[in-house]
Automatic annotation (TrEMBL), chain A:
Name by which UniProt lists this protein: Trafficking protein particle complex subunit 6B
Major subcellular site: Golgi
Pfam families tied to this protein: TRAPP
Gene Ontology biological process terms, A to Z: endoplasmic reticulum to Golgi vesicle-mediated transport
Species assigned in the record: Camponotus floridanus
Amino acid sequence: MKQQIIDSKVNPNATGEADDCLFEYLHAELVNYVLSKSSNTAEGEEELSRLEWMGFSVGYRIIERLTREWSRFKDELDMIKFICTDFWSSLYHKQIDNLRTNHHGVYVLQDNAFRLLDKVGTSNSKQYLKESPRLLAFTCGLLRGSLANLGIISTVTAETTTLPSCKFHVQVQKI
Amino acid sequence: MSRTGTKLDAKKVNSELFTLTYGALVAQLIKDYENVEDANKQLERMGYNIGIRLIEDFLARTGSGRCYDFRDTAEKIQSGFKIFLGITPSITNWSPAGDEFSLCFETNPLTEFVELPDNCSNLKYCNILTGVLRGACEMVQMEIACWFVQDQLKNDNITELRVKFVKRLEDAIPAGED
């Protein structure tokens, strides 16, 4: 499949481009805030549901604005493809690198250099692996919210083995 | 693969992502604190954390040196808004002593899509900005105070942010050096 690449970094001097780093700083503060409010569970897992919920509400709203002038999607796969290409490249500067599906409602979206992990530590290091779920919870919610407003009820989880690459697992719930 | 739909504008999307994320944060704070004053304080604190980092971006991008006086500072703050939010607030209402000025915003990307419900009338929705300014100025050895005088969300014509110079912070001298 040939895909068009929208490279938003063509002109780094353009105005408005700097909005980017604001989102990154704000996201960092969200994570900080949620951590300060949450108590660790017995297994040492952090309570990140607030972050996920914020992502959900952002995703639910933003997709409505983005798809307003878009032609109707054919099917579920078409929506997921939209998420992987246009949606992702507008939000995170690059497309999803790999999309896998079992054609029964499970999709795996792999990003080899996820924007929010890209500047964390040196690449391929395991130093901050433990902290990475914090940086992914918001985006999981964002995906879930976006899909929800497109009419797909799902659960989204994220997985990292080496930074800065990560996989988002989307499990569609059949009604 | 071709689509008949319009292409997404990455810049616009990014700015909307920022606006909506900020909105989600404010909503969460109000839910968590159940007290608008505490939410205001938390927003300021978060802004401060952002400001102390954002100043590095600003200095790296503009290559600007130290400010000669507070008027110079005002102009640099103005250009900071241009760079980061794409807006140019006007600088007005200088105090006679030249230590206080106002930034007036006709539009504000943070408040796009926002309406305040009645029970949040004390909420300073954009309070994060005051924190950002305070944090950024502190990193260049300047203590300022900053607050909102007018707010479009509260039916004022413009949003006015008042900035007051408090004092110069002195460089700490490393131990053992005179």
